[in-house]
User: Fold this.
Amino acid sequence: MIPEFISFVTRREGQKFLQLEAGIDETLISGERLGGGSGISLYVHVPFCRALCPFCCFNRYLFQEGLARRYFVDLKAELEQYARRGFKFSSIYFGGGTPTVLMDELLGFIGALRTKFDIREVSLETTPRELTPENIELLKDAGINRLSIGVQSFDEKVLKTMGRVNGPADEVKERLLRAEGRFDTLNVDFVFNFPGQTVEQFAGDVAAFKALGIDQATFYPLMASPHKHDALERKFNRVDNSRERQFYDIILAELYHDSYKASTAWCFSRGERMIDEYIIEYDDYIGIGAGSVSIVRGNFYVNTFSLDRYHETAGSGRLPIVGWRRLSARENLRYYLLTKLFGLKVETDALRNRFGKEAAGRLWPELAFFRASGIVSGNAVLKVTEKGMYPVSVMMRDFFAALNTLRERYIEEQV
Ligand SMILES: C[S@@+](CC[C@H](N)C(=O)[O-])C[C@H]1O[C@@H](n2cnc3c(N)ncnc32)[C@H](O)[C@@H]1O
Ligand code: SF4
Assistant:
């Protein structure tokens, strides 16, 4: 009942992020105005993949070398826009798509970042197919701190249903082991509650992950897009959320009750590890690339999803933002609360520092609900309880599901 209620409220809140205005006031996007422009993380989207997984909800296109090379040039131009506006990034996250799809361009881009900014940490996503010995060395030399590999499942039947090509499971494991210990953090992504995936198959994935002795895994509940047109893709939209809890309980039993601690409601780590959720660690972030979003001081910005439009705007020295929204004070507070709950703790001092001393009072109904339902406990620092972890996972899933509506609309209409 509580997860269902939370699901309803989060979807409603998430829908508000879809009501965007065109015509941004570019003067608002200024590092100087934002207290010197530091403390803001940078997300870089590389939307190319060698094969397109039908379940994927991100902005991605089939790799074409010419388009990808043009894209990296445009990315540098967009980065330059933010540098000129006084932003100082130290924490970078490369997501996709598949950022490693053109290694020479990626390394050139990382080099450009390092000449402009004092970079402290770089996180990057890739696929098992691209986790070659050569790429591991190149990424290590480029100073990647956290490498995340999208395995999704080791089970060949599940991978087949997903339409995902990873190569044989033994080879994937061998590749992961070769990368293990080479980066500060090695993460493996899995998807759960896939239509047709059994709880036993998922338990097999968790056991296989543990047996590898890798320090971090992120488990994504399958998030559907609302109106996929292709028949295969539509199949994934019949997601049965009533089964999801059983999958989540496996993660809790096998990892959380063992030696892994929860870094977020989806990410489980051993030791001190970096996490992939820049939205938790940084209250503000800029996203560059086609299909990226940014949150800066309560404003939400959406870049174009179209590669051509991205080239026309970023490539000619303009910001490729096509929609934006000034979040209301309440939406801002709720978004802050959502991200911190997802990171499993809300520090009331940090909340007051950011939003003023009335902030905790204004969130009183939400906080009272989370306390009364046993989702959080504590006073100065509210911690998500074990009982609260699944409802928090549902909250984040539904927030992303709402954003998927936006992604899907913008991809289809090539906004
Ligand atoms: C955007 S992908 C990038 C990584 C890389 N391209 C790959 O697939 O290995 C990051 C992760 O998002 C997750 N993901 C993608 N589509 C999803 C969906 N519809 N629902 C839940 N998780 C999804 C997958 O676990 C994937 O590893
Ligand atoms: S899951 Fe990864 S490899 Fe598959 S289409 Fe999405 S971004 Fe590309």
In short: The CA atoms of residues 228 and 234 lie 5 Å apart. The domain at 1-19+328-415 is CATH 1.10.10.920 (Arc Repressor Mutant, subunit A). The longest helix spans residues 386-413.
